[in-house]
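Q: What would this chain look like folded?
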Amino acid sequence: MAKLTSMRNIGNEIEKKLKSVGICSAEELIQIGSKEAFIRLKMHFPNVCLVHLYTLQGAIDDIEYNQLSDKVKCELKCFSDTFK
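A: My prediction, written as structure tokens:
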């Protein structure tokens, strides 16, 4: 299984947070998806924000989070807005 930090956008801090909510490998993050991972993080770390969701999606898509398409960003923003 690949380490989370082997993924683009995933550093030590987000890796620790992901592991604390039961996501311990790159394969698990890909299988779970950015939205479910975001929900888990948000439940344990209320300060998690939209940028975290972009980061997770970018890691899954293997692109820098700021390179996500406008369509994907809009969809993720709408999703994240439901948690305000």
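Helices lie at 12-20, 26-32, 34-44, 50-61, 70-81.
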